[in-house]
């Protein structure tokens, strides 16, 4: 649980080229960024409320406004590194895995094996992959940059079509005006 118990988790819905997304933030920072159509979304909301001992209510704050602005700039091809404060409750291993994701350079990918090695746990590929799957802050914490050892796209909660779009976008294969339906 958190020492800022009962501070509300604010939620805001907005539109991106990849579809509607929800962003949640506490006074400490963004704690969730997910696609509105994600099948696990309700479970993620419940887990977040449990971990932060709080409830989700509609609203916004400076972290939400900054996240939306930075995502707008990202999709426009103007931003390659996010600076919005994050609030990522999780186990120590999950937090290390999520920090490592943020070190993968824009436009590059690593395999799940390489990701586990970066965590100093080369034998823990499945644990690293599971931690990625528990990442609640898509795009900003770029789990889409982790791919299969053979280069295949695997394991993205937003869908493999979105994962491919994000990788193509970061490699300059989309123009800022490309709007694909999701």
Blueprint of the fold:
Elements: E1 9-16, E2 19-25, E3 30-35, H1 41-52, E4 56-58, H2 62-75, H3 92-101, E5 110-111, H4 112-118, H5 125-133, E6 146-147, H6 160-170
Helix pairs in contact: 4-5
Q: Bin the strand percentage.
A: 15-25%
What would you report as the Rg, rounded to the nearest angstrom? 16 Å
CATH class of the largest domain: Mainly Alpha
* Known CATH architecture of the largest domain: Orthogonal Bundle
The secondary structure category is: alpha/beta
Order of helices and strands: EEEHEHHEHHEH
CATH superfamily of the largest domain: Winged helix-like DNA-binding domain superfamily/Winged helix DNA-binding domain
Bulk shape: globular
Low-pLDDT stretches:
none
CATH topology of the largest domain: Arc Repressor Mutant, subunit A
Main sheet: which strands, in order across?
A: 3-2-1-4
Total beta-strand segments: 6
Helix percentage range? 25-40%
What is the domain total for the residues? 2
End-to-end distance, in Å?
36 Å
Notes on the protein architecture:
This protein is α/β, with parallel strands linked by helices and 182 residues long. The chain folds into 2 domains: 9-75, Double Stranded RNA Binding Domain; 92-170, Arc Repressor Mutant, subunit A (Orthogonal Bundle). The protein is 35% helix and 15% strand. Strands 3-2-1-4 form a 4-stranded mixed sheet. Strand 1 and strand 2 (19-25) form a beta hairpin.
What are the main properties of this structure?
182 residues; alpha/beta; Double Stranded RNA Binding Domain; Arc Repressor Mutant, subunit A; two-stranded parallel sheet; 15% strand; globular
